[in-house]
Specification:
This protein has about 260 residues and is an alpha/beta fold. Helix content is about 20%, strand content about 25%. It contains four helices and 27 strands. The strands form three sheets. It has a ten-stranded mixed sheet. A nine-stranded parallel sheet has the order 1-4-7-10-13-16-19-22-25, with no helix packed on it. The longest helix is centred in the last third of the chain and has 16 residues, at about 205-220. It is elongated.
C-alpha cells in the first residue's frame, strides 16, 4: 500500500491499510490511522497524529513547524481526527507552547485547495474551508461553520457554529454562531437561514435566533427589556443560549 518511491521514516507508525503515493515523505513521530489515503508529493512531519479514513491530496504540507518567530523548537503537535478531506497545496502547522502545544482538527471537515491553517488553530467537525481560506494563529472554528473562498481570519478570532463567511471576507473580530458575514472588513448580514434549514433547524428556532441576533449584534442599546427577552429565548432555545454565551465571552468583540 506504500509506493516504493515514497520515503517513510522507520519511526513513523502507520496502520497496514494506509496508502501512500509516490514521492511523499512521512517523517518520524507521525501516526496515521486505518483507511487513510495519502496522495503523491505530500510531506507530513511530526509529532503529528492523523486518524482514520482521511484523504490528503498532492503537494500538501502537514505538521511542519509553526510560522512563529517565537518558536524555538519546543515540543508541539498536530492532531487530525477522522474522515477529513485535505486538498492540494494545503499547509497545516503544529502548535506552540503559547497555544497549549497543539493544532487540532476534528472530524468530517472539507478543507479545499490552498487553505492555510496556522499554529494553535482548533477546528471542530463538519466545517467547510473553501479554496484559499487563511487562518492566522490561535483561531477557533466551531462545528458546521463555512468559510468562503479566500476568507482571511485574524489571529485569536473565533467563528461560531453554523456561521457562514462569504467569499473574500476579512475577519478581525469574532463571528457569532449562526450568523452570515461578508466584506472587508467583515459585516454581519443576518442569520445563516439557508444553512440552518439544510441542517434541519425548525422555523421556530431560526426565528428565535434572528431575534437574538437583532438584540445581541445589531442593537446598540443594552436595555433591561433586551436582557429580559434574551433570557426568555435562552431558556427555551439552547441555540440562543449558546449565541449569548459566545458573545458575552468574546475577548476580541464580535463583528457588528
Amino acid at each position: 500500500m506504500i509506493d516504493p518511491r515514497a520515503v517513510v521514516d522507520l519511526r513513523a507508525s502507520l496502520d497496514p491499510s494506509v496508502e501512500i503515493g509516490p514521492f511523499s515523505v512521512i517523517g518520524p513521530q507521525v501516526q496515521i490511522g486505518a483507511g487513510t489515503w495519502i496522495g503523491p508529493h505530500v510531506v507530513i512531519n511530526g509529532p503529528t497524529r492523523i486518524g482514520r479514513d482521511n484523504r490528503i491530496f498532492q503537494f500538501a504540507s502537514v505538521g511542519d513547524i509553526p510560522q512563529d518567530k517565537k518558536y524555538r523548537g519546543e515540543p508541539s503537535e498536530l492532531v487530525i481526527g477522522d474522515r477529513n478531506t485535505i486538498r492540494e497545496y494545503c499547509t497545516i502547522n503544529r502548535g506552540t507552547i503559547n497555544g497549549h502545544g497543539s493544532t487540532v482538527i476534528g472530524a468530517d471537515n472539507w478543507i479545499m485547495a490552498y487553505v492555510h491553517i496556522a499554529h494553535d488553530c482548533h477546528i471542530g467537525n463538519h466545517t467547510v474551508l473553501a479554496n484559499g481560506a487563511t487562518l492566522a494563529g490561535h483561531v477557533v472554528i466551531e462545528d458546521y461553520a463555512t468559510l468562503g473562498g479566500f476568507t482571511l481570519v485574524h489571529q485569536f478570532c473565533r467563528i461560531g457554529k453554523h456561521a457562514f463567511c462569504g467569499m473574500g471576507t476579512a475577519l478581525n473580530r469574532d463571528l457569532p454562531p449562526y450568523v452570515l458575514a461578508s466584506g472587508n472588513l467583515a459585516e454581519p448580514h443576518g442569520i445563516n437561514k439557508i444553512g440552518l434549514k439544510r441542517h434541519g433547524f425548525s422555523p421556530e428556532t431560526i426565528n428565535a435566533l434572528h431575534k437574538a441576533y437583532l438584540l445581541l449584534v445589531k442593537s446598540r442599546n443594552r436595555r433591561d427589556q433586551d436582557v429580559h427577552q434574551l433570557q426568555e429565548l435562552s431558556s427555551t432555545y439552547p441555540e440562543v443560549a449558546h449565541m449569548v454565551e459566545f458573545v458575552s465571552k468574546s475577548p476580541r468583540g464580535v463583528i457588528r
